């Protein structure tokens, strides 16, 4: 009897030891989600990209996709909001919003939950979250998508923007729309920081995509925080997204198409300029397209031309007398009366 009791106790002890060793390999219970961080992938505008996500089965068994729920979401810059991208349950799949018809699961095997995005846009930049739930080996995986510019300028270009109404007239939501209207998105802190490291100096504060307001100074001066303040990014911190009003820093990358000056015999009003581009099989160019052509392709022309927002600008990549003599820049003439017949026009023809 003692021998039987000893054998039973020994068996229970060994079983407990095995269970403890198995459980100690994870900081959470077996049925809790395993979170994976740190992946970063890069894509060009208009290309297709795969965001990786796999279910790592600890129990070593696969029962196919029946009963597995896969959900992809996109996080806002401050990670306070999630935008649904795609939800899959077995054979039922649904995509949402701007991703409708552009995303699908790769499904290379039963453990693959990777997301394929077609026709990548600037607005797709950011952090995505993949959640795979099968009741046993749940996984939460995060991956950041970066949208590259052209070769040698993988970070695109950051530019300050204010509307016709003048400086400090945009709340955060209007700032987002203003950048989208100019073929760009609100810049991130990292993008503004890299632009500052490359020489961007701007004395007007602008929104960033995390809801903060900042401005880059490379040449400290009295009118911009004082001469005794060091060069760097000056921050106003987080601001009320609805009530606070500033300018905005936008980000754009290489464009799929041709930006060009439309040769015309006469100067044009704004409406005539827009029509002239349309007659040439194009559209009047946007501010972001001018910055991309200037910064990423070295576009240079010393002629003031209308752009889609009603502003007049010209891009100089080779500084010279009477054409931005001190620095390469996109020169801003202003928002003139649209009826003035004083300027030419810049057009953009998208790639077919």
From TrEMBL:
One of its GO terms (molecular function) is hyaluronic acid binding. InterPro entries: C-type_lectin-like/link_sf (IPR016186), CTDL_fold (IPR016187), Hyaluronan_bind_Proteoglycan (IPR050691), Ig-like_dom (IPR007110), Ig-like_dom_sf (IPR036179), Ig-like_fold (IPR013783), Ig_sub (IPR003599), Ig_V-set (IPR013106). Residues 1-20 form the signal peptide. It is found in: Secreted, Extracellular space, Extracellular matrix. Keywords: Disulfide bond, Extracellular matrix, Hyaluronic acid, Immunoglobulin domain, Repeat, Secreted, Signal. Its main location: secreted. PROSITE patterns: IG_LIKE, LINK_1, LINK_2. GO terms for biological process: cell adhesion; central nervous system development; extracellular matrix organization involved in endocardium development; fin regeneration; glial cell differentiation; positive regulation of neuroblast proliferation; skeletal system development. This is Hyaluronan and proteoglycan link protein 1a. It comes from Oncorhynchus kisutch (Coho salmon). The lineage of its organism: Eukaryota, Metazoa, Chordata, Craniata, Vertebrata.
């Amino acid at each position: 009897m003692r021998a039987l009791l000893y054998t039973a106790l020994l068996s229970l002890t060994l079983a407990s030891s095995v269970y403890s060793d198995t459980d100690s390999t994870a900081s959470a219970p077996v049925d809790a989600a395993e979170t994976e961080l740190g992946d970063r992938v890069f894509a060009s505008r208009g290309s297709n990209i795969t965001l990786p996500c796999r279910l790592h089965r600890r129990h070593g068994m696969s029962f196919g996709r029946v009963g597995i729920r896969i959900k992809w979401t996109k996080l806002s810059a401050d990670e306070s909001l999630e935008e649904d991208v795609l939800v899959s349950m077995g054979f039922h799949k649904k995509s949402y919003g701007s991703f409708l018809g552009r995303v699908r699961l790769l499904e290379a095997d039963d453990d693959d939950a990777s997301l394929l995005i077609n026709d990548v846009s600037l607005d797709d930049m950011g952090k995505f979250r993949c959640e795979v739930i099968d009741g046993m080996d749940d996984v939460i995986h995060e991956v950041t998508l970066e949208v590259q510019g052209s070769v040698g300028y993988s970070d695109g270009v950051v530019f300050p923007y204010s509307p016709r109404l003048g400086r400090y007239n945009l709340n955060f939501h209007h700032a987002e729309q203003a950048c989208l209207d100019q073929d760009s998105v609100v810049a991130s802190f990292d993008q503004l920081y890299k632009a500052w490291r490359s020489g961007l100096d701007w004395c007007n504060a602008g929104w960033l995509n995390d809801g903060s307001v900042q401005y880059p100074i490379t040449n400290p001066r009295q009118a911009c925080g004082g001469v005794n303040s060091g060069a760097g990014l000056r921050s106003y911190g987080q601001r009320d997204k609805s009530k606070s009003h500033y300018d905005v820093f936008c980000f754009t990358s290489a464009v799929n198409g041709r930006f060009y000056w439309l040769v015309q015999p006469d100067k044009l009003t704004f409406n005539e300029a827009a029509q002239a581009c349309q007659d040439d099989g194009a559209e009047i160019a946007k501010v972001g397209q001018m910055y991309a052509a200037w910064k990423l392709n070295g576009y240079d022309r010393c002629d003031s031309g209308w752009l889609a927002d009603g502003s007049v600008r010209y891009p100089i990549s080779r500084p010279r007398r009477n054409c931005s003599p001190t620095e390469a820049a996109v020169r801003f003439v202003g928002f003139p009366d649209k009826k003035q017949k004083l300027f030419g026009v810049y057009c953009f023809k998208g790639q077919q």
